[in-house]
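Worked example 3. Consider a protein that binds adenosine-5'-triphosphate.
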Amino acid sequence: MLQLNNVSYRKSKSDLVNSVSATVHAGDRLTIFGPNGAGKSTLMRLMAGIIKSTSGTIMYNDSLQTKNAIGYIPQQLALFENLTVKEHLRFYQKMTGNNSKSFMNEMIETLQLKDFWNKQIDELSGGMKRKVNLAVGMIQQPKIVFLDEPFVGVDLAAKHDMLNWLNQLNSRGITIVFVTHDWQVIRELASKMWLMENGELLQKTTVDEVVEDRVELTGVSTALDKMVSFHRT
Ligand SMILES: Nc1ncnc2c1ncn2[C@@H]1O[C@H](COP(=O)(O)OP(=O)(O)OP(=O)(O)O)[C@@H](O)[C@H]1O
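Given these inputs, the predicted complex is written out as structure tokens:
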């Protein structure tokens, strides 16, 4: 579905992403894992087409070359403080041209947005805003979605709603690529895992292999080794 060939991204004389080659397949549930500053967000932004690689190529298959096929949900909330939840979703619905009532209803239902449907964004808690941020990013019904730390500050109940919906979408074929430091989310949402450090993609593995200690980590820092070992069963 998406293939990276020796992709690098250089800024201020350093390689934030260094010669990454990998493939994302249709239907994947992939997490990119690694310490702060590893280059995870930068790699996702490259894949989502938000920034352009300095060298190397990213090939998208035909299904990703259609309008609205690629979704990106940034870590920074991109919401208008003085619009209500309803106004937000109607606005983005118009912008993306996705008028599917059933999708909108499913989203409202699963994310339980009705509870604060007519509230302005500046009246919402951080966790509620995250739900709206997710809804706004998904309204175009992308074929692949990149989510950067979508669960920061989200309580367990809201997290459950969001995970439930993302898993539903994935079971209908949407490819999910995300970054998080939240291991509970990784266990519930990811199947594949890329381990990243210092701009390099060190290992392509699976969550099961990591938690069951079936992956041999070579050339990783103590920090990454610790981050992985903490979560072994
Ligand atoms: N615009 C920029 N210019 C220069 N350096 C940058 C820029 N954006 C990010 N960086 C640096 O690139 C490196 C990778 O950043 P990135 O945000 O991709 O890492 P990350 O793995 O997502 O980190 P975190 O887990 O903390 O979110 C960091 O060292 C960061 O300081």
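Take a moment to read the result before moving on. The chain has a mean pLDDT of 92. Residues 11-12, 16, 34, 36-42 surround adenosine-5'-triphosphate (CB under 6 Å).
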